[in-house]
Design a protein that fits this description.
Layout (H helix, E strand, L loop, with lengths): L7 E6 L12 H17 L4 E6 L1 H4 L4 H6 L2 E5 L9 H4 L6 E6 L2 H14 L3 E9 L4 H14 L2 E3 L1 H9 L7 H8 L1
């Protein structure tokens, strides 16, 4: 039941520059995504991004884009309809999903992954929508559908498993 860094992929959904100013708690959401992406990279967890309608919403925030190994440009709200599964590293079954908007693109991407048989994990402190109620409704629905709801810090410690992990101090510095 614990998250396993060797089985995980982080998918950051649509943290786009033109969208972020409208997002509830945007600064916190961006900070948590940056923290999680840096932790993932330290622990060799692949980091992927998505961008919704790049022409209209622009690219992902620069700091996020720099941490993503690949970015999927999409027009569907659910990234699975635009080929997300094709860019997921083979053999990794735990997909951590974060991003915006929680009740639209993040939700539909997570549901698509659940339908494909992946174990879906939502880092709840790294997702949001324009309205908190929309975020909360999305998280409640995903919980009912079988996604695991965790925090960034929970993920970090589960990925580490042991304070003797060679990257423990580096990860701890990002958490504190």
């Amino acid at each position: 039941m614990l998250m396993d860094a060797n089985q995980a992929v982080l998918v950051i959904v649509d943290l786009q520059g033109r969208l972020m100013p409208a997002i509830h708690d945007a600064g916190l959401v961006l900070a948590q995504n940056l923290r999680l992406a840096k932790i993932a990279r330290l622990l060799d967890v692949p980091v992927l991004g998505t961008e919704q309608n790049r022409q209209g919403l622009g690219p992902n925030v620069e700091e996020i884009a720099a941490l993503c190994e690949r970015t999927l440009h999409k027009t569907h709200f659910g990234a699975c309809f635009d080929g997300l599964q094709a860019i997921l590293p083979p053999g990794r079954r735990q997909i951590v999903v974060t991003g915006c908007e929680a009740h639209v693109c993040m939700l539909q991407t997570a549901i698509g992954l659940l339908e494909l048989g992946y174990e879906v994990i939502i880092a709840i402190d790294a997702v949001s929508s324009r309205q908190a109620a929309s975020r909360d409704a999305a998280l409640a629905r995903l919980d009912r559908l079988g996604a695991q709801l965790v925090t960034v810090e929970m993920l970090a410690f589960e990925w580490l498993r042991d304070c003797k992990h060679p990257r423990f101090r580096e990860v701890l510095a990002l958490i504190k």
